[in-house]
Amino acid sequence: MTNHRNLAHPRDEIMHTMQRIYRYRMTTTSGGNLSIRESNGDIWITPARVDKGNLTRRDIICVRADGTVDGPHPPSSEFPFHKAIYEARPDLQAIVHAHPVALVAFSICGQTPDTRIFHQAHSVCGKPGFAPYALPGSERLGKNIADTFGDGCNSVILENHGVVVGGDSMSQAFQRFEALEFTGKTIIKGNQLDRVSYLSDEKLAQVQQRQVDFDSFVPGEASANEKERRRELCEFIRRGCRQRLLISTEGSFSARIDSDSFVITPSQQDREGLEIEDLVLVKGLAAEQGKMPSRATLAHRSIYAAHPEVNAVVFAHPVNATAFSVTDSAFDTRTIPESYVFLHDVARVPYGVQYQSDGEIANFVSLKSPTAILTNDGVLVAGTSVLDAFDRLEVLESTAEAVINAKAIGDVNAMPDEVIEELRNAFGMN
What we know:
This protein is of the alpha+beta class. The protein has helices at 10-23, 79-88, 101-108, 119-125, 139-150, 170-191, 201-208, 224-242, 297-306, 319-325, 337-343, 386-407, 417-426, and strands at residues 33-37, 43-45, 61-63, 69-70, 94-98, 129-131, 155-158, 162-167, 215-217, 252-258, 261-264, 280-283, 286-288, 312-316, 347-349, 371-374, 379-383. A hairpin with a 4-residue loop joins strand 16 (371-374) and strand 17.
């Protein structure tokens, strides 16, 4: 695999990341700040009192290693704690600070989210730390946060404030930030359903030991069908990220090309930024040369092999549906006609089945049962096309959110058996 140099200017990395955080509603117009430290000691940081929803590259400030400031605004008032973190952790090159609602909820309860809820969250974020309250912008706050980072934490909840996350790049810092907020949201939603279950050391190790070795091949000229499937996947992956059905660090989406090949998302690449050339063509047990397909590739392959009528598969982590995956609460689609017709009865997959190489995952999904809840790992959806799979994913998440909201109002009334039978007959589901 080729290691690419990062040629993006710090101004642009900070601007684009802040735009993304704001678009995802993980900060407010006045809240949050980002920074990047260069090897020469210069720190680029967002400005004070500038609309985060309308930030331009010109607004980004550089605090030179000698303390001089370049830019049209003063640097963020939180600059002292950014500087303190960098001094405590020379390995960190980027910091994200914001006030996403789920992590703020943890901060005002004096708690940290347990990342053992998902293998990916635990791998990406590790164990978050907690920094005691101090006045925003004060040296004391900087010391509290830096001390916690100095203990080896990469993500720190600030008491009655928000969160600070560090990484060796802005991309890594953002991914940790997003994964931690997703974890917090899922725990909150899960607690509205039932007791939340966490993963043991053994189960976490089960995923880390997963190895997928592919032969490589040089693909010939792409067919019009392959080109169209690549275009569709990129379009819907980007839409899924922006609708919070997918997160940047996790999930996979594929589309069948023919009986023995499909294109799939690559491993460990930001999902929202994928381009058609980033997707990986898989034929049998071989992957396109120079690319690493998703670690879920064998699961996708098993589903396609067992179900010729399935042409698209997605593993995803929409927060409301994922809340069902971390509890024992049953997911009942018999809520409104659209939910049952699109989703049918939703299966529950025992933890780890999708990581196995025996193809058992294909027993849990088909067009007659196109959706499944993956214990402590989100959801699985199959469809006749990329659009069909994405549509089912949207319906799955909206149904889950409606059920969780309904539980705050009263008892959930499922449609009776005679209504379900009428639907099955009317829509040819028997």
